[in-house]
Design goal:
With about 190 residues, the protein is mainly α. It contains 7 helices and 2 strands; from the N terminus they run αβααβαααα. Bound molecules: 2-acetamido-2-deoxy-beta-D-glucopyranose (2 copies). The site of one 2-acetamido-2-deoxy-beta-D-glucopyranose (NAG) has 7 residues, from loops. InterPro entries: Invertase/methylesterase_inhib. Keywords: Signal. This is Pectinesterase inhibitor domain-containing protein. It comes from Oryza meyeriana var. granulata.
Length: about 190
């Protein structure tokens, strides 16, 4: 890593450490707003708005302003939990369900691979939010989303699938998290 970049990262880390001493996450330059405003800004549809309110439901003191980073972290954690549960379900189907067609088995194995790389990209998002680094953040969001969409497109081609609803929700949660992340100005 070039020295200048290292210094920037270290500065971001120490800033994050200072602000972490307070009650909750704040990042320099990030806007503050209520959950309501964030969800209104991030959602084009009622379904997305409901999903947003749900994903941010755990943020305490929801009527006050919070750093958008708090919301971005909550939304990405919610998406990642959903993705992890689907990943487990896909692996269990492949391992234990003897009535899967070949087509299904191939699809779920492929999904489990792309889900692993999606989880990696989503972990990068969380890591960068945690150190207040916006550097390459949009790419990390996008990479995770593209992986999830490649699984979704695969599963959509199956005649029927117990994973169908789950992969749709995962993709929508990750897309929502990205839109909330965009409130940071990425
Ligand atoms: C096993 O796979 C079949 C075919 O997709 C599915 O209909 C069934 O619900 C699965 N069983 C379990 C226990 O998940
Ligand atoms: C969110 O929406 C409000 C109301 O439309 C607007 O004033 C504000 O600038 C928006 N904030 C961001 C970060 O998009």
């Amino acid at each position: 890593m070039p020295l200048r970049r290292l210094l920037v990262v270290l500065a971001a880390v120490s800033l994050a450490a200072v602000t972490a001493a307070g009650d909750e996450k704040t990042c320099p330059g990030a806007p503050s707003m209520t959950v309501e405003t964030a969800c209104r800004n991030a959602s084009g549809t009622q379904a997305m708005y409901d999903m947003c309110k749900n994903a941010l439901g755990g943020v305490p003191d929801r009527l006050s302003d919070h750093d958008v980073t708090v919301y971005a972290l909550a939304a990405e954690n919610s998406a990642l939990a959903s993705v992890g549960a689907t990943q487990d379900a896909a692996i269990k189907l492949v391992l234990y369900n003897s009535s899967l067609s070949h087509e299904e088995r191939d699809a779920y194995m492929e999904c489990s691979e792309v889900y692993t790389t999606a989880e990696h990209a989503m972990g990068n998002v969380l890591g960068k939010l945690d150190i207040c680094s916006l550097n390459g953040l949009a790419d990390d969001y996008m990479n995770g989303l593209l992986d999830l969409e490649s699984c979704r497109d695969r599963v959509l081609k199956l005649p029927a699938s117990p994973l169908y609803a789950m992969v749709l929700v995962d993709r929508n949660k990750a897309a929502l998290a990205f839109v909330i992340g965009k409130l940071l100005g990425i």
